[in-house]
Design a protein that fits this description.
With 324 residues, the chain is an alpha/beta fold. The chain has helices at 49-59, 75-83, 129-136, 149-162, 179-186, 196-206, 210-216, 255-269, 273-288, 300-311, 313-323; strands at residues 3-6, 10-16, 41-47, 65-67, 69-70, 92-93, 100-106, 112-117, 141-144, 166-168, 191-195, 219-223, 229-233, 236-241. The strands form 3 sheets. It has an 8-stranded mixed β-sheet with strand order 4-1-9-10-11-12-13-14. The chain has a 4-stranded mixed β-sheet with strand order 3-2-7-8. Strands 5-6 form a two-stranded parallel ribbon.
Length: 324
């Protein structure tokens, strides 16, 4: 399958302040705050949901096409993704804006002060999927992930008009979207991704019941945290897949992106929904054991050993051929 992933491309600049923000705040001067914190650590990480998902798919060897917008400072990040099996030729490079950036400082009590710079992400709305499809000889599926909201709407409408199957994945953008926008973005999706909280928020904002949403999408894929994932289809029994046992829980950031990467890779291999979900859960487990969204290494033998332990020999035999 030729799968394109649209979504944000960003870098995270994460700093640590050894003291407490609250000790620096003067109650009667909060209307005129002027503070600078001397930090001990700076951790620069590659991120953005589109790039995270593509990195995971690249690790699994499924050759994803990343569709998004970045700045002229994207060269090093592009080289990293290219080395890890991601097609970055459809990334739009802004002539005037930097790549989106999240800058955050965390204090000793784990309170955070952060800023998100949208930057070049705002130009994603100018990307036409037809040019992507023409370049690679067609598209079998487009995942529409969290991005510039206008871009998400444009990509969804273009998929409908051109008959390209698409997956709706609002994630971080669901908080700012209206019920009308969410209805547009999910209607006709082959897959609708969300976590449990987002599932309830989608229903609350749209006014749709669970059954009404299932009548509008092909598959509803809901991640359940440590309990795994549930896949629902109208008129069909649900599929539930649990998570492999974790060696450790280091950082949950990017776990949902990794699940999507594994699930989409499984679809690309044609191993079926249950197996695809198992691959997604295994990849997500590797990410939660690692600090950073793209810092894990997928070693095939290790992956299959843990996959076999979690899901059995029959499941492993279906997956192994695609990883060898």
């Amino acid at each position: 399958m030729r799968i394109a992933v649209t979504g944000s491309i960003a870098t995270d600049h994460l700093m640590t302040f050894p003291g407490r923000f609250s000790d620096q705040l003067v109650a009667d001067q909060l209307h005129t705050v002027s503070l600078s914190f001397l930090v001990d650590n700076l951790d620069v990480r590659r991120g953005g949901v589109g790039a995270n998902i593509c990195f995971g798919m690249g690790q699994l060897g499924t050759g994803p096409i990343l569709v998004g917008a970045a700045g002229s400072d994207f060269d090093e990040y592009r080289a990293w993704l290219d080395r890890h099996g991601v097609d970055t030729a459809s990334v739009r490079i802004s002539e005037v804006l930097h790549t989106a950036r999240f800058v955050c400082t965390t204090d000793a009590d784990h309170n955070q002060i952060g800023s998100f710079y949208t930057g070049a992400m705002s130009e994603a709305r100018q990307i036409e999927l037809k040019s992507v499809a023409d370049r690679i000889g067609g598209l079998d599926l487009v995942l529409i992930g969290a991005d510039d909201p206008e871009a998400m709407l444009r990509h969804t409408e273009e998929c409908r008009s051109r008959g390209i199957p698409f997956a709706a994945d609002f994630s971080q953008q669901i908080a700012r979207m209206s019920g009308d926008e969410i209805r547009i973005l999910l209607d006709g999706a082959t897959y609708l991704f969300s976590n449990e909280y987002e599932k309830g928020l989608i229903e609350s904002k749209t006014g749709f019941t669970d059954e009404e949403i299932l009548s509008r999408v092909g598959h509803r894929v809901t991640t359940l945290g440590s309990r795994g994932v549930r896949i629902e289809r109208a008129g069909e029994p649900g599929i539930e897949v649990g998570c492999p046992e974790e060696d450790s829980k280091v950082d949950p950031t990017g776990v949902g992106d990794a699940f999507r990467a594994g699930f989409l890779s499984g679809l690309s291999w044609g191993v079926g929904l249950e197996r695809a979900a198992q691959v997604g859960c295994m990849l997500a487990t590797l990410v939660i054991e690692t600090l950073g969204t793209q810092e894990y290494t997928l070693r095939r033998a290790h992956f299959m050993e843990r996959f076999t332990k979690a899901y059995g020999d029959d499941a492993a035999s279906e997956v192994r051929a695609h990883l060898s």
